[in-house]
Design a protein that fits this description.
mainly alpha; globular; 5 helices
Amino acid sequence: MMDSAQLYETLKKIQEAKGYFFSNDKDHVFELLEALLTNKERYGYMVCPCRLSAGNRVADKDIICPCEYRAPDVEEFGSCYCNLYVSKEWNDETIPHDYVPERRPFEKMGF
């Protein structure tokens, strides 16, 4: 099974090529990567650890990491909701680190 260091290196290569970077806060990044691996064991897929999973791949497909909200979040705020993926400007601290609001529609949250 993959560990968080392996996941970091694998995702770093794939996502940086797309213009998405891991946050400079390595402790936070590795906590999230560990949680993604836990969710993969639990559900069979890497669902966002910052959101409540339905435990159903179809219901959760919008929040399987990288979630479908990452691109608009990074474009608008320089960071995704979890602060896992960020822009170069975010890491360089040339843009403010504003709170990233939840974009996931309420009806998809399973309440």
